[in-house]
């Protein structure tokens, strides 16, 4: 696996807009040095608003890149101090950026009949980058499954992908009423012979996806979003137990084989 060359620099905010309840999208232009074409799905950046009361940088998945404009997008949910500060930043302001971070192995979707992307809540963010690479660059079949608690939290995915998205809402106001894992459990019954599943979302959801995949003898990759401190493999703060020993999510992940994660020991 390739080692990342981590760059620290101020990035310009091209656009920062609300896209759903408590959910924002930020388009960033990191200028020279940080080559967006050298990033791959699953990778993330750490961002720190340049405000005196911000504590430390926070990790966010790259969810879309524009090679022509040298920009990339993140989609983030406002949950605490940093994300609240981020949501108040205006177009043209700068933010401190570390990246790209995380493992950068490109998945060749053509080794499979189809790739299914199962996202829960804001966990959809890195999966949009996968969908783009698979369906546009690799010209292969990626199917997106997206679960949200209520419709107000739903990111309008039509902006990101022309493909049909299978949606599950817990309030049942549109599409499938229930958990995304219930919808997935129904669909996998008629799966293609060689299927790859990639999932991101709450740990309990990913654990369930992983269990269903094992039941159907299907490969599954999970993108973990453990709370991080340094983001570069030094502090061990993001360590998790796997069947291959302790792993640092920021350095050895965030993409892991789901069957190797000891899910019950995660927070
Ligand atoms: C590799 C990686 C990729 C990520 N990608 C995204 C993304 O694309 N979009 C996005 O919105 N978020 C993403 N996250 C989560 C994001 O980093 C946190 O939401 C953010 O750090 C919160 O910062 P804060 O200062 O606003 O909140 P804090 O004040 O630090 O925390 C507020 C609340 O959120 C909880 N929290 C903090 N971090 C996490 C986490 N990693 N997982 C679950 N709960 C957490 C805290 O326990 C607390 O309850 C990612 C995390 C990782 C590790
Ligand atoms: S966050 Fe420090 S080792 Fe991963």
Describe this structure in words.
About 15% of the residues lie in helices and about 35% in strands. The protein has a seven-stranded antiparallel sheet with strand order 4-3-7-1-2-6-5. A seven-stranded mixed sheet has the order 11-10-9-8-12-13-16, with helices on both faces. A two-stranded antiparallel sheet has the order 14-15. The chain is built from five helices and 16 strands. The longest helix has 14 residues, at about 125-135. The relative contact order is 0.15. Strand 14 (about 240) and strand 15 (about 245-250) form a beta hairpin. By secondary structure, the chain is of the alpha/beta class. It binds flavin-adenine dinucleotide (FAD) and FE2/S2 (inorganic) cluster. The site of FE2/S2 (inorganic) cluster has 12 residues, from loops.
């Amino acid at each position: 696996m390739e080692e990342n060359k981590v760059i620290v620099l101020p990035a310009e905010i091209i656009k920062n807009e609300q896209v759903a309840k408590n959910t924002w999208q930020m388009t960033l232009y990191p200028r020279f040095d940080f080559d967006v074409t050298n990033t791959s799905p699953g990778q993330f950046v750490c961002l720190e608003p340049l405000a005196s009361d911000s504590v430390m940088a926070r990790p966010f998945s790259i969810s879309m890149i524009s090679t022509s404009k040298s920009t990339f997008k993140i989609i983030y949910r406002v949950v605490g101090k940093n994300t609240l500060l981020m949501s108040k930043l205006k177009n043209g302001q700068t933010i401190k950026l570390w990246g790209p971070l995380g493992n950068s192995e490109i998945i060749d979707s053509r080794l499979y009949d189809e790739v299914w992307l199962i996202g829960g809540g804001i966990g959809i963010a890195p999966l949009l980058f996968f969908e783009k690479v698979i369906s546009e660059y690799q010209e292969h079949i990626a199917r997106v499954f997206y679960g949200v608690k209520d419709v107000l939290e739903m990111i309008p995915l039509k902006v990101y992908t022309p493909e049909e998205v299978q949606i599950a809402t817990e309030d049942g106001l549109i599409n499938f009423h229930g958990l995304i894992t219930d919808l997935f459990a129904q669909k996998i019954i008629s799966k293609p012979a060689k299927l790859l599943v990639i999932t991101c979302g709450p740990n309990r959801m990913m654990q369930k996806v992983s269990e269903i995949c094992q039941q159907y003898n299907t490969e599954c990759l999970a993108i973990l979003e453990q709370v991080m401190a340094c983001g570069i493999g030094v502090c061990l703060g993001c360590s998790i137990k796997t069947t291959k020993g302790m792993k640092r999510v920021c350095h050895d992940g965030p993409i892991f084989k789901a069957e190797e994660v000891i899910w019950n020991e995660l927070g």
